[in-house]
Amino acid sequence: NGFNGGDPYYAGVSAASAVVNTNVATATGVLVWMGMDAWLTKARKPTFLGGVNGMICGLVGITPCAGWVNGWGALAVGAICSGFVWFAWNYISKVRPFSKVDDALGVVYTHGMAGLLGGLLLGIFGDPNMLEFGCGTLDKFGQVVNTPPGAYAHASSSCTPFSVGGLMYTGSFHQLWEQFRAAIFVISWSAIATFVIMQIIRFVLRGLRYKEDVLEIGDLAIHDEEAFPEERFAERVGGGAPGAFELAGIGAGSSGTSPPPTSLGGAQSENRT
């Protein structure tokens, strides 16, 4: 709501529409993903992770077009982005080169694919009646051109209200083509800039990744602390989860270190590294 509703830099109809559309697309994304989990997976049940992924798909997908589509368009964007990413997550991720991508959080799918698809869908569902105010002149496609810097303001006699017309409303592929061109530019720029940044990191740190044995140990080896200290106690038997004071090494009997292995039925459990 914040970054979409705040994009116009003023409180108005466009900002309000962006906030409403963001919520509509997000809710739709959650329902679509959880529904597909319930109908199309072997487990036949929705999952919490699926709901979160659907929510992210709806949020990311509507961001490029939050103020330019109507409510039905927002619903369609949320449903299409969530459904497409669900298939990509469950099937395309198993195919090369995606299967070789180290993407533990699925960012390529929930952000990359959903964002790209949401931008393209603006070229289809963009509603000419969703106005954004700006000063300038209109070209033959109804797009504003020659807009002075800082000209986005409330409508006045010197400002020409302009809008974006998608394929569904204008029958023209112009906006869809513009969205495609913009996507190619963003992907190219991001790839080149990221490559340069990673080469700098490689040079400064003498490599991009830690060795496998360090990665296995994780936060404890790299930062000398753990993000989730309770994992050190996961194999305790009968003791239950430690309290906050015990984790911090405070109080009687607390040493702040991992407890010794516990025996169970004559077999000694192993400490997790």
Topology:
Blueprint (H helix, E strand, L loop, with lengths): L1 H4 L7 H28 L7 H15 L8 H20 L16 H19 L6 E3 L2 E2 L5 E2 L14 E3 L4 H4 L3 H32 L6 H6 L1 H5 L20 H5 L14 E2 L2 E2 L5
Antiparallel strand pairs: 1-4, 2-3, 5-6
Which CATH architecture of the largest domain is right? Orthogonal Bundle
Strand content: 5-15%
What spatial form do the alpha-carbon principal axes imply?
globular
Number of strands: 6
Low-confidence stretches: 148-157, 235-241, 252-273
Mean pLDDT: 78
State the end-to-end distance.
41 Å
The run of helices and strands is HHHHHEEEEHHHHHEE
Structural class designation: mainly alpha
Query: At the first level of CATH, what is the class of the largest domain?
Result: Mainly Alpha
Q: What is the gist of this entry?
A:
The protein has 273 residues and is mainly alpha-helical. 51% of the residues lie in helices and 5% in strands.
Structure write-up:
It is built from ten helices and six strands; from the N terminus they run H-H-H-H-H-E-E-E-E-H-H-H-H-H-E-E. It has a two-stranded antiparallel sheet. It has a two-stranded antiparallel sheet with strand order 2-3. A two-stranded antiparallel ribbon has the order 5-6. The protein has two domains: 2-194, Orthogonal Bundle (Ammonium transporter fold), CATH 1.10.3430; 212-268, no CATH class. The chain has helices spanning 2-5, 13-40, 48-62, 71-90, 107-125, 167-170, 174-205, 212-217, 219-223, 244-248; strands at residues 132-134, 137-138, 144-145, 160-162, 263-264, 267-268. The protein has 273 residues and is mainly α. Helix 2 runs parallel beside helix 4 and helix 3 crosses helix 5 (107-125). It is globular and about 60 Å long.
